[in-house]
Amino acid sequence: MLSRSHLIRVAPARIQHRWFTSSCTNPHRLARIQPRTSLVTLGYSAKSSTPLNGSRIMFTRASSSIPPTSTSLSDNDKDSDPSTTPTTSTTPAGFQGYDIRWKEVKSPTISDYISIYLDLSKARLGALVTLTTMAGYAMTPMGASLPTLFALTTGTALCITSANAYNQFVEPPYDAQMSRTRNRILVRKAVSPLHAWSFATLTGLGGTALLAAAVNPLTAALGAANLVLYAAVYTPMKRVSIANTWVGAVVGAIPPMMGWAACTNSLDPEAWLLGLLLYAWQFPHFNSLAWNLRADYSKAGYRMMAVTDPKLNARVSLRYSLALIPLVTLAPYLDMTSWWFAVDGNIVNGVMLAGAANFWRKRDDKTARQLFFGSLIYLPVILALMMFHKKGKQDIVQEVGSLEQVSESGSAAQFKEEEDDDEYEYVDEDEEDEEEAHVAVKTA
Ligand SMILES: CC(C)=CCC/C(C)=C/CC/C(C)=C/COP(=O)(O)OP(=O)(O)O
Fold it and tell me: Which parts of this chain are annotated as the region Disordered (predicted)?
């Protein structure tokens, strides 16, 4: 007589291979994590050779003590119902040829989890965005404080991680339809949606709290607002309106402003200029990328300019590449950089503009690819030039001749307070009392 303890567990390596190839381009990569984490529960109704996704594959043999859950079986399933079709220890119907001997199913290791969390955070994109925050911090005229920079970088990276994990939590049905994204962790079901959601929530709360406690409330508010903008506004908007690209550009513009705010505790015109630079840059960058992904976007139902209005897609890229010229020229005007930045920054802008004009004229895969790779190089180059030509506090002080005109915030204001402190005289109260006593004796 058999009971529940006679359940046979099956490691479904070959079954999974079939499943992978139906949905994934890179089964080798999947195989790293999938066999340990995504097994299938089929039980008595395991007739289909296409496994469902769940926890483990289990088969039972005929049992008189455990009646099959026949109410949940279809007519077809009943054909293979162990209670009606006696089976012994042979392979259940539909699984001939598979190795069904018991094998240990290992839990994910720490390195599996690291790999899962890196995927959930879209680590490479996150690192690029975090660099723009650090650039915003580095562009302030004040000296850097390492503890603040560390807290800013960690807090921002956690907020970005959270935003990207929420985005992936929402998008598996659409990601599964695009070859670029169908390998993503939640499409593969290597972790449960609840696990991903918990990870997103913890990193979001942790990042915002760290920014509030160790940087300043303004930076924390920007981080939290941007998280909500990306996860709750941009992400659903991708399937609703092409305006999503403008909203996404705001999301990309805020991180360098957070860097500036972390140092100055304010959103000065310089912070807005940094934000606008990142905002404008994203159109040639994203629209050229979207051009070569338009078949994918169309399949998944995303409303992208490249799909719905390809001419507009190219025109917008050109328009914002042009806008980069006045923005770069504004930097020396605002005393962020020397005028040399306007010279070499605009040479770099010229290259970007030529790429965007080419894409606008020809609108083909080659010009889109050239513009996309050009934009990838543009961003680090323009930020590096900006820092190279940056005006420090000293430069500005020398030019305007007075510290009071530099800024009322951050260390400049602190320095001014220290100067004001020097105006107070040191008075010894005992000496003062003695003097008063002398005067009293004389007058008496
Ligand atoms: C501080 C903070 C919270 C910053 C957020 C930074 C952030 C997540 C920037 C990404 C900007 C963006 C529009 C990416 C595209 O997402 P997509 O959904 O179109 O990309 P996909 O197609 O690869 O999923």
Answer: 62-92, 406-444
